[in-house]
Amino acid sequence: LTERSRMSPKLPDQIIDTHLNIVDPDFHYPWTGTLMPESDSPFLGQDLNSLASEQGLIGVVICQLLTDWRATRKLMALPETLSIPAKLIPRVEKDAPGVLELIQSISSNSHVAGVRHLPASLEEEFKLEGAALDAVDQLANRGLVLELLLLENHMDGLIQFLETTVSRKLKLAINHLLWPDIQGDLTKWKEMISLLAEHSNIWLKASFLVPTAYPERRKLEPQDYFECLSHAWQAFGKRERMVFASDFPNAATQASYGQVKRIWSLWANHMGLNPSELRGLFVGNAERLYGKF
Fold it and tell me: Which residues fall within 8 angstroms of residue 91, CB to CB, at 6 or more apart?
């Protein structure tokens, strides 16, 4: 690293993390050991309280990993056990039977800020139509955020969805920086990010560490992330629609929380971000997306 990059700016003392997960030993996570390294360590409410105290978290967004109603019920009760304000993003499949009733049920919980939709497999086509569009319309009417985990190969379906009237009624949050291949060709990814940023209702969650650093690849250095973060900043950050997200504890398979923050600090210095821009990334933009914590 250059001397300039070692002189890291101070991140805000208090931050909002917009992507944390609960890992409950009562449930099985089928992607562990395949898309993610093996990890047997649970991460529950008490662990989140400890992390918040250690890292200066003043608010968190907890994203549900599994499509399992038992896990959803446990998630709904979690904020009452936490020492800091929490928003919840349950995972809901938009074309599942009874999805409208499910959205109505979970949205009665004041902590719910949106729902997540993940394709059944990362190879399948992304498509929202029919009953799924009705479900999205209900989200919009209730002021909830739709969070999407997508790859480049899902972009045709996403663009078709963005042409619908209902898509313009709600806020969309793209998870994991649209999963860039940090060690590959970023040309197409950059084009997609720039295209999506033109839609004023789309936000980018910069949780990036694990999905781009699988165990079979070489260990990445902080500066390896700079190109992706910088392009995301130019497209979304300058429009105040990019938010900090750790993807913890999943990221713990690659780095500690402190190391994740160090990457951000080094990158912020590389970009020359000022305190106001840093506060936007780490606090203000999250409140504009999800509401006050």
Answer: 63, 64, 65, 66, 67, 72, 115, 116, 117, 118
Are 113 and 145 contacting, i.e. CB atoms less than 8 angstroms apart?
yes
Q: Which of 110-119, 215-224, 268-277 has the lowest mean pLDDT?
A: 215-224
C-alpha 281/C-alpha 233 separation (Å) is: 9
Q: Which element (helix H / strand E) includes 244?
A: strand 242-244
**Residue-level pLDDT at 2:** 43
Q: How far is CA 202 from CA 17, 71, 85, 180, in A?
A: 18, 28, 24, 17
For 44, phi and psi rounded to 5 degrees? Answer: -115, -175
Verdict on whether the full-model pTM lies above 0.90: yes
- In whole numbers, what is the pLDDT of the chain averaged over residues? 88
Helices (DSSP H) in the chain: which residue ranges?
A: 3-6, 45-55, 69-77, 99-106, 131-141, 155-162, 187-197, 226-235, 257-271, 275-279, 285-290
Instruction: Name the CA dihedral angle for 212, 93, 78, 83, rounded to a multiple of 10 degrees.
Output: 50
Cis preceding linkage at 249, omega within 30: yes
- Dihedral angle sign, alpha carbons of residues 122, 61, 172, 271: negative
pLDDT tens per residue across span 15-38: 999 999 999 999 887 755 444 555
